[in-house]
Each structure stands twice: as structure tokens, then as C-alpha cells.
Design a protein that fits this description.
Blueprint (H helix, E strand, L loop, with lengths): L8 E4 L4 E4 L4 E6 L7 E3 L10 E6 L7 E4 L6 E7 L2 E8 L8 E20 L2 H4 L4 E5 L2 E6 L2 E7 L3 E4 L2 E9 L3 E10 L10 H17 L8 H13 L1 E2 L4 E2 L22 E2 H12 L4 H14 L10 E2 L10 E2 L13 E2 L10 H15 L6 H17 L18 H20 L7 H18 L1 E2 L4 E2 L14 H4 L8 H14 L24 E2 H13 L3 H13 L10 E3 L4 E3 L5 H14 L11
Antiparallel strand pairs: 1-2, 2-3, 3-4, 3-5, 5-9, 6-7, 7-8, 8-9, 9-14, 9-15, 10-11, 11-12, 12-15, 13-14, 16-17, 18-19, 20-21, 22-23, 24-25, 25-26
Length: 596
């Protein structure tokens, strides 16, 4: 069975990532893209569904692991009775090839190593035809071919490719796994050592561009590296997570495929990157956005494939038992067809902020934003599925309306402050005022002094913490303070983590429960800081940092009842607010202000 979710690290090549367990097992890898079928899928089942383990014979979890500096080069070290050994894993960001390189290095004594490679294409369903071709072992199944080159003898047994060798201090064993289309010959072999040097240089150079120099630099930079790893370089698309169906509740059904580009998540990712000095990524994502949403604004989707694909049909994989028996395992995501009004605000707000950080003005981009707002003008008062993508009845979610206000507000500001061209600003001003008035009238419960999740119903929602963050109301407004207090009262766990909403209200139409949502917990940090409770904000932030695994990675949620991470991993939506909260907490003390 796979290890804990938080027992994993990741390596990636800006096309896809591999997840590596503490015991040296790659138990999740989709090739050649994030959303391709997995050739190692034991994360969602067991070893029958594909894996690749390299470890000392008889050893289990590594004694130490770390990233080499500010990179995605992952190192595991074992101390055995016979000596010590290091395993280095990385994927060279070569821009076209798809290689996973694993190097074993003897540190002391003599250690017997064992490699077991079991390819299973199509998410663990298909056994490939494996044969030796020259100096490599090649596995072929349909359109996919994977080749293994190593400097130790390999042999087949029980539909698995094995290799064994004893490594002494200073000696190295090398393994290179390459994917290529099965109708083409294997590409030229990769030399592991120059590839390692180039990968080290690539990530170190990228990390050196980070402009944040505050007290949380280690946590911020690791989060930024993780967000960069979730970028599909050929198009600029940014996935929400590299996994599917890691459960929000162990044994439950809240299991979703996150290997796609949510406009919301990508916009937030872009915001964190731009504010940390990475404007090139903003330019690439804006180009991806313009291609993805091209056409009729009425056809806007809330997510797309990494190249802008629109059809993300959702279906189950019944042959996979799921992570810790959490079924179903899903591929695709039906939420792509939902109406989520907040997406308009997040996209427009992010592009506005990116211009403020140096992204050049683009006439086509501005034209698309005005079309989006004009489309939103016709739709903002419709019930929608909201930020949490409920699969129950649509509602008038307050957060959705607030972000509709943000969309209008940011374009009005662009016309007024940036002198962007528009003949519609007067109408937009009326729209902004109308939305603001309606939210304050219908979305606010005066008796309890709190905004509510949706119009006319009493439950609250952690997304309401965004109200002061986006500047809908000043942070010192009594209604804002009351809302933050109500969220803390009704949605925080004993440990101080924040739930998205109470699942027992049946708002999402799904059975079961879920863990605390880490993004919401970081939003609470910002809300506390903005409303003047700064010592509490710093304490909350430090606690959240302590929940990261030893590599600095976070899943979507954390379940304090079992003290484990749950949900897809690593999750962009958790690392993004870590960065933005750190930026806020590192500001020179002054009067609290929202993002507006």
C-alpha cells in the first residue's frame, strides 16, 4: 500500500511530475503530460498498478530526505548496518524529452541496492510488452513506449524489471527512464551527470529571481518552486494539482481530478508569482488564457486542459481501489461545465495586478476582459455553483457576488487610473454600485452581524474571509469584523484550522465529510492581520507552516482528527495563500488595508 500523502515528494520537468514516497518508490507518474494516463498508479491502488522502487535491500523508509538547495532535485539517504547510500531523483526540464533520472551513490561501506520497475499503462490497467533492445529495456503498450537504461544488469521476473548491485563509497549507479511515442524510435540516451548539472542550474537560476526577502523566505520559495512545477511550459497553463482522487475524507467519495487548469487557481498562482518577481510566467499564462477562452464569452469555462482543451469528461476507473479504499477514482471533471461567477473577478483582478507589476498592456487581453465583464453584467445575478463547485442546487453565493463586484471595480480602476480605453465605464460604475448594494442588503445578517454563505440562509462560509482581502469593505468595518468572528466561531476546529463550510448543511449534495481546507486557514491569517489582530495572525501562520511536510509541501486539506493531510497533493490552492499571507505579514507595520 502507498505511504501517507505527506510522505511524498515531487520532481518534475514542467510537463508532468513524479511523486516519490519515503521508501524510494515512485508511485505516481503520468507521461507525457500532467493529465496523461499514469504508468505508475500504485498511489491509488497497490503495486499491481505500477511502481518503481529503488532502495537498499531490506530497508524501508529513508532516514533523511531533502531537496538539494532551491531546486526540484530530491535526495533520500539510508543508513544500513553495512553502510550509507543516497538516492537522487530528478526530471530534467529539457523542453521536449521526458526523462526520470535516478542516481544511487555510495556514501560509506558497501550497500546492496535493488531496483524494481513495474510499468502499468492506462492508470494501472495495461501490462506492456517488455523486451531488451540493445542497451535498454523497452516497454510498449498502444501509443506509449518507455525505455530504461541503467549501468547495472537488468532482468525480468513476474512481469517486473529488476536490477541489483552492491555500491561502495564513491560508486554510483544510474537509471534513466524515458517516455516516447511508441511509433517513434527511442531518443538519444541522456547522460545523467550533465543532466543533473543542468537541472541544478535551471532551478537555482529560477529561484534566484525571487524578489521576496522577508522572514518567511524558505517557506515562500519552496511554495513558489512547487507552483512553478505545476506549470505546463509549452502552453503556460497551470494545473491545480498533479494528482487525481486523493480523498478529502479517507474512505469517502469526495475524490476529484485536479490535473487541469482552473482559471481561479491559475489566476491566484499567477498573482503569487508576479508579486514575487516572476512576470514572465504571467505573460505566458495570459497568452494561454487568451487561447483557451477564445470565442463566445458565453462559452467561458471555469477550467480547461493544459493546452486549452474544453472537453474534460468525467468518468470512473473501476479497476483502481483508490487511495486507502477511497472510491471512486475519477478522471476528468464535470465541474468544467458549471457556472462559477467568482472566476470573472479573479481573472480580471489578477490581470490588473499583473499590469501593476510590469506586465505590458496587451490590446487583445484588454478587449477580452471588457467582453468578460459585459458578459458578467448579464449573469452576475444568477445563482451559481460557487467557489466550492457544489454539486447540489445552485444558490446566490455571497462570495460569488463579491467577486463580481471585484471584476467591475478592477476594470473601472483600470480606466480611471491606467487610462485604459472604454466607453462603458459609466455603465460599469452603475453595475458596481448595484452589486455592492445587493450584497450588503441580501447577503448580510444584521441580527448576527455577519455575512452569510448565500442569500437568505444562516450558514457562513470561509470564502467570506475574502471580503476584506479583495477590498469589498474596509477591514475595520464592523460587518467585516463580525464576519471574521463568526467564521472563527462556526468553522474553525479545536486546533484553529478552518473548514470551508459545514458539510452537514448538505449544501454540496455529497455524502460524508472532509478535512479542514488549508487555503481557508491561510485566508484567516490575512483576515486577522487586516482587522488588526496581528499577533493572532502571526501565531496562526506559524502553526500552518508547521503542518507542511519535511519538504515544505502541502495537500489540499488537513484532517486534525487523524493528524494527516488529505486531498490532492501538492495543492496549488494551499501554497498560493501561504505566499500571499507571508507577503502581507512581512509588510512594514501600518494601517490595515485590503487589496483594493
Amino acid at each position: 500500500m502507498p505511504g501517507l500523502i505527506e510522505d511524498h515528494g515531487l520532481v518534475g520537468d514542467l510537463h508532468t511530475v513524479a511523486l516519490v514516497d519515503r521508501d524510494g518508490t515512485v508511485d505516481w507518474l503520468c507521461l507525457p503530460r500532467f493529465d496523461s494516463g499514469a504508468c505508475f498508479a500504485s498511489l491509488l491502488g497497490d503495486e499491481r498498478h505500477g511502481f518503481w522502487r529503488i532502495a537498499p535491500v531490506g530497508a524501508r523508509l529513508a532516514d533523511r530526505r531533502r531537496y538539494r538547495g532551491d531546486t526540484l532535485i530530491l535526495e533520500h539517504e539510508w543508513d544500513t548496518p553495512h553502510g550509507s547510500v543516497r538516492l537522487t531523483d530528478f526530471m530534467p526540464p529539457s523542453g521536449g524529452a521526458h526523462d526520470l533520472v535516478r542516481i544511487v551513490e555510495g556514501l560509506s561501506g558497501r550497500v546492496q541496492m535493488h531496483s524494481a520497475l513495474q510499468l502499468r499503462f492506462d492508470y494501472g490497467r495495461s501490462v506492456p510488452w517488455v523486451a531488451r533492445v540493445g542497451d535498454q529495456v523497452v516497454g510498449v503498450c498502444g501509443p506509449d513506449a518507455v525505455s530504461l537504461r541503467c549501468n547495472v544488469p537488468a532482468y525480468g521476473r513476474d512481469l517486473t524489471t529488476h536490477a541489483e548491485a552492491t555500491v561502495s563509497a564513491g560508486e554510483r549507479l544510474t537509471f534513466v527512464l524515458n517516455w516516447h511515442p511508441s511509433h517513434l524510435p527511442s531518443p538519444p540516451p541522456v547522460d545523467p551527470y550533465p543532466a543533473l548539472a543542468e537541472t541544478l542550474r535551471f532551478w537555482t537560476d529560477w529561484a534566484s529571481r525571487c524578489t521576496y526577502r522577508g522572514p518567511y523566505r524558505e517557506a515562500v520559495l519552496r511554495s513558489l518552486l512547487t507552483l512553478k512545477a505545476l506549470t505546463y511550459e509549452p502552453t503556460g497553463g497551470i494545473v491545480a494539482a498533479p494528482t487525481t482522487s486523493l480523498p478529502e475524507q479517507l474512505g469517502g467519495v469526495r475524490n476529484w481530478d485536479y490535473r487541469y487548469c482552473w482559471l481561479r487557481d491559475a489566476a491566484f498562482t499567477l498573482d503569487a508569482l508576479v508579486r514575487s518577481g516572476y512576470v514572465e510566467e504571467a505573460h505566458a499564462w495570459r497568452n494561454w488564457l487568451l487561447r483557451a477562452i477564445g470565442g463566445n464569452p458565453d462559452d467561458l469555462q471555469i477550467m480547461y486542459g493544459v493546452a486549452g482543451e474544453r472537453r474534460l469528461m468525467e468518468f470512473d476507473l473501476p479497476w483502481l481501489p483508490g487511495y486507502e479504499r477511497s472510491r471512486p477514482v475519477r478522471v476528468g471533471n464535470a465541474a468544467a461545465q458549471q457556472l462559477q461567477i467568482d472566476v470573472y473577478g479573479e481573472v480580471i483582478d489578477t490581470l490588473s495586478r499583473a499590469r501593476g507589476h510590469g506586465l505590458p498592456v496587451d490590446r487583445q487581453s484588454w478587449g477580452v476582459q471588457t467582453l468578460l465583464l459585459n458578459n458578467l453584467e448579464r449573469r452576475w445575478d444568477d445563482p451559481d455553483a460557487g467557489i466550492w463547485e457544489i454539486r447540489g442546487q445552485r444558490r446566490h453565493f455571497v462570495h460569488s457576488k463579491v467577486l463580481a463586484w471585484v471584476a467591475a471595480d478592477r476594470l473601472i480602476r483600470a480606466v480611471e487610473a491606467e487610462r485604459m480605453p472604454s466607453r462603458d465605464v459609466a455603465r460599469w460604475q452603475g453595475l458596481r454600485a448595484m452589486i455592492h448594494a445587493e450584497v450588503c442588503a441580501k447577503g448580510y445578517d444584521a441580527q448576527r452581524n455577519t455575512f452569510t454563505q448565500s442569500y437568505g440562509l444562516p450558514p457562513v462560509d470561509a470564502a467570506l474571509l475574502q471580503i476584506p482581502i479583495v477590498g469589498f469593505l474596509p477591514p475595520d468595518d464592523p460587518r467585516v469584523v463580525g464576519t471574521v468572528d463568526m467564521v472563527r466561531k462556526e468553522l474553525t476546529t479545536e486546533s484553529g484550522l478552518v473548514l470551508r463550510y459545514r458539510t452537514e448543511t448538505d449544501v454540496d449534495g455529497l455524502p460524508g465529510d472532509e478535512g479542514a481546507f488549508l487555503a481557508c486557514s491561510f485566508w484567516l491569517v490575512e483576515a486577522l492581520y487586516l482587522t488588526g489582530r496581528r499577533e493572532e495572525a502571526y501565531a496562526q501562520f506559524d502553526y500552518l507552516l508547521s503542518l507542511r511536510n519535511d519538504l515544505g509541501l502541502l495537500a489540499e486539506e488537513y484532517d486534525p482528527r487523524i493528524n494527516r493531510m488529505v486531498g490532492n497533493f501538492p495543492q496549488a490552492f494551499s501554497h498560493i495563500p501561504l505566499v500571499t499571507a507571508a507577503l502581507l505579514l512581512s509588510e512594514v507595520p501600518g494601517p490595515p488595508t485590503g487589496r483594493a
